[in-house]
What we know:
By secondary structure, the protein is of the alpha+beta class.
Amino acid sequence: MGEDGYGQYCPVTRAVEVLAERWTLLIVRDMLCGRTRFNDLARGNPGLSRTLLSKRLRQLERAGVVAHVGDQYLLTPAGEDLRPVVFGLGGWGARWQFGDPRDQELDPLLLMWWVHGRIAFDQLPDRQLLLEFRFPDVAARFWVLRDAQGPSICTFDPGFGVDATVEGDLPVLYQVWLGRVPLSTALRDGRVRIDGRPDVTRPLPAALQLSPMAETVAAASGVPLT
Length: 226
């Protein structure tokens, strides 16, 4: 946006000048979902260059939306006040613009990045755990390891015994994650399969918490969430 902006004295215009730059709202979205470190924000937006991410964060700082504290980027009260705006925009998208996924929107590593941060490990056995996720349609496999340092994603087999395996085609697992397809339905009709140790597989469906947008998407799609 140029120095003169849109040349309109209007609060909508002022908000657009701050938030309508490419990637800005997605950065704010991820911060509202708990991402506070530069590398985490970069991993959650793989199409965004690190140079542009730095620029956008500086712009948000100047606008008073974000504060850079140590190695974290924290939302200010003005940033937190965007929560109903961002998720309200997501609700509009779910109702009016959200159809089947496009091929270019299906990134298995990005999906795993989102999923691994939403697994409720407190509902699973209290020990080191290794969960394997298989996407047979794109010949991709990932592992989520929970150890003393917390959960992390592995793109190669860590060499520990796998406690549970979740398998399904990439479009299906994306739609489960986002609430368009209930996990219970996908498990019942075989589009998603969970195998492994019973003490892990039994509580795992409940522990696989969905996207923060899943409830909104499910309501817009007219399907039950679970």
